[in-house]
Amino acid sequence: MNCRIALINGIIYNQYDIIKQKSLLLDGEHIAGIVPIDQIPEDYEHFDVAGAYICPGLIDLQIYGTGDQLFSAELTQESLYAIENQLLLQGCTSFYLTLATNTLDVFKKAIAVFKQSDPKVALGLHLEGPFLNPSKRGAHPEDLVIPASPTLINDLFLDACDVVKMITIAPELIDDVCLNLLKQYKVLMSAGHSAANFEEASASFDNGIDAVTHLWNAMSVLHHRNTGLPGAAFNHHRVSASIIVDGIHVDYEAVKLSKKLLGDRLFLITDAVASCRKGIYQHMLEKDHYVLPDGTLSGSALTLLKAVENCVNHAGISLDEALRMATLYPSRLIKNPLIGNLNSGSLANLLVFNTDFEIKHVFLKGKAINGISE
User: Which family does it belong to (predicted)?
Assistant: First the structure.
Protein backbone atom coordinates (compact mmCIF):
# COMPACT_ATOMS: atom_id res chain seq x y z
CA MET A 1 0.00 0.00 0.00
CA ASN A 2 1.13 3.55 -0.79
CA CYS A 3 2.68 5.28 2.24
CA ARG A 4 0.43 8.25 1.48
CA ILE A 5 -3.18 7.35 2.13
CA ALA A 6 -6.39 9.37 2.07
CA LEU A 7 -9.21 7.85 4.12
CA ILE A 8 -12.50 8.88 2.51
CA ASN A 9 -16.25 8.47 3.15
CA GLY A 10 -15.91 8.29 6.91
CA ILE A 11 -17.05 10.31 9.92
CA ILE A 12 -13.93 11.60 11.67
CA TYR A 13 -13.83 11.97 15.45
CA ASN A 14 -10.89 14.13 16.46
CA GLN A 15 -10.77 15.58 19.96
CA TYR A 16 -13.87 17.83 20.19
CA ASP A 17 -14.68 17.79 16.48
CA ILE A 18 -16.97 15.51 14.48
CA ILE A 19 -15.99 15.97 10.85
CA LYS A 20 -17.99 14.81 7.84
CA GLN A 21 -17.36 14.92 4.10
CA LYS A 22 -13.63 15.35 4.52
CA SER A 23 -10.61 13.11 4.15
CA LEU A 24 -7.96 12.12 6.69
CA LEU A 25 -4.49 12.16 5.15
CA LEU A 26 -1.77 9.77 6.31
CA ASP A 27 1.79 10.52 5.20
CA GLY A 28 4.00 7.68 6.33
CA GLU A 29 3.97 7.42 10.13
CA HIS A 30 2.16 10.70 10.70
CA ILE A 31 -1.13 12.48 10.11
CA ALA A 32 -0.82 15.01 7.29
CA GLY A 33 -4.13 16.74 7.88
CA ILE A 34 -7.88 16.68 7.33
CA VAL A 35 -8.96 18.22 4.03
CA PRO A 36 -12.02 18.47 1.76
CA ILE A 37 -12.31 15.56 -0.66
CA ASP A 38 -11.53 17.77 -3.66
CA GLN A 39 -8.25 18.86 -2.04
CA ILE A 40 -6.69 15.41 -1.69
CA PRO A 41 -3.22 15.57 -3.29
CA GLU A 42 -2.82 13.51 -6.45
CA ASP A 43 -0.14 11.23 -4.99
CA TYR A 44 -2.43 9.95 -2.20
CA GLU A 45 -4.10 6.55 -2.51
CA HIS A 46 -7.82 6.66 -1.72
CA PHE A 47 -9.00 4.30 1.04
CA ASP A 48 -12.80 4.11 1.22
CA VAL A 49 -14.12 3.31 4.72
CA ALA A 50 -17.72 3.14 3.49
CA GLY A 51 -19.37 5.42 6.04
CA ALA A 52 -17.59 4.07 9.12
CA TYR A 53 -16.27 6.06 12.06
CA ILE A 54 -12.61 7.11 12.15
CA CYS A 55 -10.99 7.94 15.48
CA PRO A 56 -7.54 7.97 17.07
CA GLY A 57 -6.16 4.61 18.16
CA LEU A 58 -7.35 3.73 21.65
CA ILE A 59 -5.09 4.12 24.71
CA ASP A 60 -5.23 1.74 27.69
CA LEU A 61 -3.15 2.72 30.72
CA GLN A 62 -3.92 -0.46 32.68
CA ILE A 63 -3.95 -3.88 31.06
CA TYR A 64 -2.24 -7.09 32.18
CA GLY A 65 -2.77 -9.28 29.16
CA THR A 66 -5.34 -10.62 26.74
CA GLY A 67 -6.51 -13.97 25.46
CA ASP A 68 -4.19 -16.54 27.04
CA GLN A 69 -1.26 -14.19 27.55
CA LEU A 70 -0.78 -12.83 31.08
CA PHE A 71 2.56 -11.02 30.93
CA SER A 72 3.49 -11.44 34.59
CA ALA A 73 3.13 -15.23 34.29
CA GLU A 74 5.31 -15.45 31.17
CA LEU A 75 7.81 -12.57 31.36
CA THR A 76 9.02 -13.13 27.81
CA GLN A 77 9.40 -11.01 24.72
CA GLU A 78 7.15 -13.45 22.88
CA SER A 79 4.36 -12.84 25.39
CA LEU A 80 4.74 -9.07 25.11
CA TYR A 81 4.60 -9.21 21.31
CA ALA A 82 1.57 -11.50 21.39
CA ILE A 83 -0.25 -9.06 23.68
CA GLU A 84 0.67 -6.17 21.40
CA ASN A 85 -0.63 -7.98 18.32
CA GLN A 86 -3.89 -8.96 19.97
CA LEU A 87 -4.50 -5.46 21.29
CA LEU A 88 -3.91 -3.98 17.85
CA LEU A 89 -6.66 -6.21 16.50
CA GLN A 90 -8.88 -4.71 19.22
CA GLY A 91 -8.11 -1.14 18.12
CA CYS A 92 -5.74 -0.37 20.99
CA THR A 93 -2.61 1.25 19.55
CA SER A 94 -0.98 2.44 22.80
CA PHE A 95 -0.96 0.92 26.27
CA TYR A 96 0.82 0.58 29.59
CA LEU A 97 1.53 -3.09 30.22
CA THR A 98 0.59 -3.63 33.85
CA LEU A 99 1.85 -5.91 36.60
CA ALA A 100 -0.05 -6.44 39.82
CA THR A 101 1.69 -6.75 43.18
CA ASN A 102 4.46 -9.28 42.88
CA THR A 103 7.99 -9.97 44.08
CA LEU A 104 10.64 -7.38 43.32
CA ASP A 105 12.44 -10.01 41.26
CA VAL A 106 9.42 -10.36 38.98
CA PHE A 107 9.18 -6.59 38.60
CA LYS A 108 12.87 -6.39 37.76
CA LYS A 109 12.63 -9.20 35.21
CA ALA A 110 9.63 -7.50 33.60
CA ILE A 111 11.63 -4.29 33.33
CA ALA A 112 14.55 -6.15 31.77
CA VAL A 113 12.31 -7.95 29.25
CA PHE A 114 10.60 -4.71 28.31
CA LYS A 115 13.93 -2.96 27.74
CA GLN A 116 15.13 -5.79 25.52
CA SER A 117 11.92 -5.98 23.49
CA ASP A 118 11.73 -2.52 21.91
CA PRO A 119 7.92 -2.73 21.85
CA LYS A 120 5.94 -0.88 19.20
CA VAL A 121 2.59 -0.52 20.98
CA ALA A 122 3.39 -0.76 24.68
CA LEU A 123 4.58 2.64 25.91
CA GLY A 124 5.89 1.43 29.26
CA LEU A 125 5.02 -0.49 32.41
CA HIS A 126 2.42 0.29 35.04
CA LEU A 127 3.17 -1.27 38.42
CA GLU A 128 -0.01 -1.74 40.44
CA GLY A 129 1.74 -2.26 43.74
CA PRO A 130 3.50 -3.39 45.82
CA PHE A 131 3.04 -0.27 47.99
CA LEU A 132 -0.67 -0.74 48.65
CA ASN A 133 -2.91 -0.87 51.71
CA PRO A 134 -3.38 -4.53 52.74
CA SER A 135 -6.94 -3.77 53.86
CA LYS A 136 -7.83 -2.84 50.26
CA ARG A 137 -5.64 -5.37 48.48
CA GLY A 138 -8.48 -6.99 46.49
CA ALA A 139 -6.93 -9.76 44.37
CA HIS A 140 -3.36 -8.84 45.37
CA PRO A 141 -1.57 -11.37 47.65
CA GLU A 142 -1.31 -10.03 51.18
CA ASP A 143 2.20 -11.36 51.77
CA LEU A 144 3.54 -9.40 48.78
CA VAL A 145 2.01 -6.05 49.74
CA ILE A 146 4.85 -4.18 51.43
CA PRO A 147 5.54 -0.70 52.86
CA ALA A 148 7.43 1.73 50.69
CA SER A 149 10.94 2.81 51.62
CA PRO A 150 13.64 4.82 49.83
CA THR A 151 15.77 1.68 49.63
CA LEU A 152 13.03 -0.34 47.95
CA ILE A 153 12.11 2.48 45.57
CA ASN A 154 15.72 3.00 44.51
CA ASP A 155 16.21 -0.73 44.11
CA LEU A 156 13.17 -0.95 41.87
CA PHE A 157 13.61 2.19 39.78
CA LEU A 158 17.36 2.68 39.52
CA ASP A 159 17.70 0.52 36.41
CA ALA A 160 14.21 1.12 35.06
CA CYS A 161 15.62 3.41 32.37
CA ASP A 162 12.32 5.18 31.93
CA VAL A 163 10.49 1.87 31.44
CA VAL A 164 8.21 2.20 34.47
CA LYS A 165 5.84 5.02 33.52
CA MET A 166 3.14 4.63 36.16
CA ILE A 167 2.71 3.21 39.65
CA THR A 168 -0.37 2.69 41.79
CA ILE A 169 0.21 3.41 45.48
CA ALA A 170 -1.80 3.84 48.68
CA PRO A 171 -1.14 7.51 49.47
CA GLU A 172 -1.95 7.23 53.19
CA LEU A 173 0.99 4.83 53.58
CA ILE A 174 3.55 6.81 51.54
CA ASP A 175 5.59 9.37 53.46
CA ASP A 176 6.90 12.58 51.91
CA VAL A 177 10.41 11.19 51.46
CA CYS A 178 9.14 8.30 49.33
CA LEU A 179 6.68 10.50 47.47
CA ASN A 180 9.40 12.97 46.56
CA LEU A 181 11.69 10.15 45.48
CA LEU A 182 9.03 8.82 43.11
CA LYS A 183 8.68 12.34 41.74
CA GLN A 184 12.41 12.38 41.03
CA TYR A 185 12.00 9.23 38.96
CA LYS A 186 9.29 11.06 36.99
CA VAL A 187 6.80 8.23 37.31
CA LEU A 188 3.09 8.98 37.08
CA MET A 189 1.63 8.25 40.51
CA SER A 190 -1.93 7.03 40.91
CA ALA A 191 -3.81 6.45 44.17
CA GLY A 192 -5.40 3.04 44.47
CA HIS A 193 -5.96 0.02 46.69
CA SER A 194 -6.21 2.63 49.38
CA ALA A 195 -8.13 3.32 52.59
CA ALA A 196 -7.24 7.03 52.49
CA ASN A 197 -9.72 9.43 54.01
CA PHE A 198 -10.68 12.66 52.28
CA GLU A 199 -7.93 14.72 53.91
CA GLU A 200 -5.18 12.19 53.21
CA ALA A 201 -6.20 11.73 49.59
CA SER A 202 -6.60 15.47 48.96
CA ALA A 203 -3.18 16.20 50.45
CA SER A 204 -1.58 13.55 48.23
CA PHE A 205 -3.16 15.08 45.14
CA ASP A 206 -1.79 18.48 46.11
CA ASN A 207 1.61 16.87 46.62
CA GLY A 208 1.98 15.29 43.20
CA ILE A 209 -0.31 12.28 42.80
CA ASP A 210 -2.07 12.88 39.49
CA ALA A 211 -4.59 10.06 39.17
CA VAL A 212 -6.83 7.51 40.86
CA THR A 213 -6.70 3.84 39.84
CA HIS A 214 -9.98 2.09 38.89
CA LEU A 215 -12.34 4.49 40.65
CA TRP A 216 -14.66 2.85 43.22
CA ASN A 217 -12.78 -0.47 43.23
CA ALA A 218 -10.51 -1.37 46.17
CA MET A 219 -10.68 1.98 47.94
CA SER A 220 -12.31 3.83 50.82
CA VAL A 221 -16.02 4.32 50.32
CA LEU A 222 -17.96 7.49 49.60
CA HIS A 223 -19.64 8.05 52.97
CA HIS A 224 -21.62 11.11 53.97
CA ARG A 225 -19.35 11.74 56.97
CA ASN A 226 -16.10 10.86 55.21
CA THR A 227 -16.16 10.96 51.45
CA GLY A 228 -12.85 9.12 51.25
CA LEU A 229 -10.76 8.71 48.14
CA PRO A 230 -13.69 8.98 45.69
CA GLY A 231 -14.88 12.21 47.30
CA ALA A 232 -11.37 13.66 47.23
CA ALA A 233 -11.12 12.88 43.53
CA PHE A 234 -14.52 14.43 42.80
CA ASN A 235 -13.69 17.60 44.69
CA HIS A 236 -10.16 18.12 43.40
CA HIS A 237 -9.61 20.57 40.56
CA ARG A 238 -6.98 18.57 38.70
CA VAL A 239 -6.70 14.86 39.49
CA SER A 240 -7.90 12.31 36.90
CA ALA A 241 -9.45 8.91 37.55
CA SER A 242 -9.64 5.71 35.54
CA ILE A 243 -12.75 3.56 35.54
CA ILE A 244 -13.65 0.03 34.40
CA VAL A 245 -16.92 0.25 32.47
CA ASP A 246 -17.95 -3.39 32.21
CA GLY A 247 -21.06 -3.17 34.40
CA ILE A 248 -19.45 -5.58 36.86
CA HIS A 249 -16.56 -3.77 38.49
CA VAL A 250 -18.66 -0.59 38.59
CA ASP A 251 -22.43 -0.29 38.24
CA TYR A 252 -23.48 1.82 35.29
CA GLU A 253 -25.35 4.23 37.58
CA ALA A 254 -22.05 4.88 39.38
CA VAL A 255 -20.44 5.48 35.99
CA LYS A 256 -23.09 8.11 35.23
CA LEU A 257 -22.49 9.80 38.58
CA SER A 258 -18.72 9.69 38.12
CA LYS A 259 -19.00 11.27 34.70
CA LYS A 260 -21.16 14.13 35.98
CA LEU A 261 -18.74 14.88 38.80
CA LEU A 262 -15.41 14.39 37.00
CA GLY A 263 -16.18 15.46 33.44
CA ASP A 264 -13.04 15.31 31.31
CA ARG A 265 -11.00 14.00 34.24
CA LEU A 266 -12.56 10.53 33.91
CA PHE A 267 -10.91 8.12 31.49
CA LEU A 268 -11.35 4.50 30.49
CA ILE A 269 -9.16 1.50 31.23
CA THR A 270 -9.88 -2.19 30.75
CA ASP A 271 -7.95 -3.62 33.73
CA ALA A 272 -8.10 -6.71 31.53
CA VAL A 273 -6.33 -9.92 32.41
CA ALA A 274 -6.01 -13.26 30.63
CA SER A 275 -6.84 -16.86 31.35
CA CYS A 276 -3.99 -18.24 33.44
CA ARG A 277 -3.48 -21.42 35.44
CA LYS A 278 0.04 -20.86 36.74
CA GLY A 279 1.95 -18.47 38.96
CA ILE A 280 0.62 -16.11 41.59
CA TYR A 281 -2.39 -14.86 39.62
CA GLN A 282 -4.56 -17.68 38.31
CA HIS A 283 -7.43 -16.00 36.50
CA MET A 284 -10.51 -17.97 35.51
CA LEU A 285 -13.06 -16.60 33.06
CA GLU A 286 -16.65 -16.50 34.31
CA LYS A 287 -18.75 -15.45 31.30
CA ASP A 288 -17.76 -11.76 31.10
CA HIS A 289 -15.19 -11.27 33.88
CA TYR A 290 -12.31 -13.01 35.63
CA VAL A 291 -12.04 -14.36 39.16
CA LEU A 292 -9.32 -15.97 41.24
CA PRO A 293 -9.68 -19.65 42.26
CA ASP A 294 -11.32 -18.54 45.54
CA GLY A 295 -13.95 -16.53 43.64
CA THR A 296 -12.42 -13.08 44.27
CA LEU A 297 -13.19 -10.67 41.45
CA SER A 298 -9.97 -9.94 39.59
CA GLY A 299 -9.58 -8.28 36.20
CA SER A 300 -12.06 -7.60 33.43
CA ALA A 301 -12.61 -9.31 30.10
CA LEU A 302 -13.15 -5.95 28.41
CA THR A 303 -11.71 -4.51 25.27
CA LEU A 304 -11.40 -0.75 25.25
CA LEU A 305 -13.82 -0.39 22.35
CA LYS A 306 -16.35 -2.44 24.31
CA ALA A 307 -15.90 -0.02 27.22
CA VAL A 308 -16.66 2.83 24.81
CA GLU A 309 -19.75 0.98 23.59
CA ASN A 310 -20.89 0.40 27.19
CA CYS A 311 -20.51 4.10 27.94
CA VAL A 312 -22.79 4.92 25.00
CA ASN A 313 -25.37 2.17 25.49
CA HIS A 314 -25.54 1.98 29.30
CA ALA A 315 -24.22 5.21 30.81
CA GLY A 316 -25.78 7.87 28.60
CA ILE A 317 -22.43 9.17 27.36
CA SER A 318 -22.23 10.44 23.79
CA LEU A 319 -20.00 8.56 21.35
CA ASP A 320 -17.63 11.50 20.86
CA GLU A 321 -17.19 11.90 24.63
CA ALA A 322 -16.74 8.17 25.17
CA LEU A 323 -14.03 8.16 22.51
CA ARG A 324 -12.27 11.06 24.22
CA MET A 325 -12.30 9.00 27.43
CA ALA A 326 -10.32 6.33 25.57
CA THR A 327 -8.03 8.60 23.56
CA LEU A 328 -7.66 12.29 24.37
CA TYR A 329 -7.95 12.18 28.15
CA PRO A 330 -5.39 9.41 28.78
CA SER A 331 -2.98 11.02 26.31
CA ARG A 332 -3.28 14.27 28.26
CA LEU A 333 -2.59 12.51 31.53
CA ILE A 334 0.62 10.94 30.23
CA LYS A 335 1.53 14.17 28.43
CA ASN A 336 1.91 12.62 24.98
CA PRO A 337 0.51 14.99 22.33
CA LEU A 338 1.43 12.65 19.45
CA ILE A 339 -1.31 10.13 20.29
CA GLY A 340 -4.99 10.40 21.20
CA ASN A 341 -5.74 12.81 18.37
CA LEU A 342 -5.74 13.07 14.58
CA ASN A 343 -4.00 16.42 14.35
CA SER A 344 -1.43 17.18 11.68
CA GLY A 345 1.96 15.83 12.80
CA SER A 346 0.56 13.29 15.25
CA LEU A 347 1.26 9.59 14.83
CA ALA A 348 -0.99 7.91 12.29
CA ASN A 349 -2.50 5.55 14.87
CA LEU A 350 -6.19 5.17 14.16
CA LEU A 351 -9.21 2.95 14.38
CA VAL A 352 -12.08 2.55 11.93
CA PHE A 353 -15.29 0.93 13.23
CA ASN A 354 -18.94 0.79 12.25
CA THR A 355 -22.20 1.67 14.02
CA ASP A 356 -22.29 -1.81 15.58
CA PHE A 357 -18.84 -1.19 17.12
CA GLU A 358 -17.27 -3.75 14.82
CA ILE A 359 -13.66 -3.01 13.96
CA LYS A 360 -13.06 -2.60 10.25
CA HIS A 361 -9.51 -1.26 10.06
CA VAL A 362 -6.63 -0.37 12.36
CA PHE A 363 -3.53 1.62 11.43
CA LEU A 364 -0.33 1.79 13.47
CA LYS A 365 2.02 4.56 12.41
CA GLY A 366 0.35 4.67 9.02
CA LYS A 367 0.50 0.94 8.35
CA ALA A 368 -2.64 -1.18 8.07
CA ILE A 369 -2.73 -4.06 10.54
CA ASN A 370 -2.98 -7.51 8.96
CA GLY A 371 -6.14 -9.40 9.76
CA ILE A 372 -8.35 -6.33 9.77
CA SER A 373 -7.27 -3.73 7.23
CA GLU A 374 -6.85 -4.26 3.54
Answer: Belongs to the metallo-dependent hydrolases superfamily. NagA family.
Query: What backbone torsions phi and psi does residue 30 show, to the nearest 5 degrees?
Result: -125, 160
C-alpha span between 196 and 170 (Å, rounded): 7
Q: How far is 239 from 266, CA to CA, in rounded Å? A: 9
Q: Is residue 217 part of a domain?
A: yes
pLDDT of 329-338, one tens digit each? 999 999 999 9
**Contact (Cβ atoms closer than 8 angstroms) between residue 364 and residue 349:** yes
Q: Which position among 271, 288, 320, 356 bears the catalytic label?
A: 271
What pLDDT digit, counting tens, does each position of 262-302 carry? Answer: 999 999 999 998 776 777 767 777 778 788 777 787 888 89
Give yes or no: residues 65 and 9 share one domain: no
* 271 flagged as catalytic: yes
Domain that holds residue 41: 4-56+340-368
166 vs 95: CA distance, rounded Å: 11
One domain for residues 229 and 305 = yes
